[in-house]
Q: What sequence folds into this?
């Protein structure tokens, strides 16, 4: 769920056991743990980037594309931009990040994306300003649900500090139990 408020409500109502957000919960009934982070970079067409002396001028003068999926992330990005004296003159709003990347590749806007070090963005130049914008990820769950198997396993994973994910989990029976699958459906 991209909307933090909806995610928190779903956890509170018991619709889901836990969730991941870029924002710490404020409610006393919820607990959380930091589980990772990612870096946000800006991108535009390589030729467009090369035309500007300073990336700040690029961000101030070329339309800035943003998705409306996550207001919290957008707020963090605009806070970062303001800290670097950037106030985009024009914005393009879209609910389709792929469309914004196509506009960027065509030299029509600048946008942001979560940096993937394993991916090459053909035709796009990625860049940051003074220091990279790091966004923290939090796992959130209801304190009263800490006895649930799903929360116990989540906390076990968080505390294990896995450096590599297992290729396959061996406890398929646990998943069947957690999913409350009827015996009538099993061999």
A:
């Amino acid at each position: 769920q991209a909307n933090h408020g909806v995610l928190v409500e779903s956890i509170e109502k018991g619709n889901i056991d836990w969730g991941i957000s870029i924002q710490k919960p404020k409610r006393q009934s919820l607990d959380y743990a930091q589980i990772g982070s990612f870096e946000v970079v800006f991108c535009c067409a390589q030729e467009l980037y090369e035309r500007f002396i300073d990336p700040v001028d690029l961000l101030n003068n070329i339309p800035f594309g943003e998705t409306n999926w996550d207001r919290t992330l957008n707020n963090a990005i605009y806070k970062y931009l303001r800290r670097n004296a950037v106030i985009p003159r024009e914005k393009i709003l879209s609910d389709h990040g792929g469309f914004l990347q196509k506009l960027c590749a065509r030299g029509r806007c600048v946008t942001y994306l979560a940096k993937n070090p394993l991916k090459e963005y053909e035709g796009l130049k990625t860049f940051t300003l003074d220091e990279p914008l790091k966004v923290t990820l939090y796992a959130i769950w209801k304190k009263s649900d800490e006895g649930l198997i799903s929360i116990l396993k989540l906390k076990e994973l968080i505390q294990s500090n896995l450096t590599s994910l297992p290729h396959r989990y061996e406890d398929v029976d646990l998943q069947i139990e957690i999913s409350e699958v009827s015996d009538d459906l099993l061999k």
User: Anything to note?
Assistant: The CA atoms of residues 176 and 183 lie 10 Å apart.
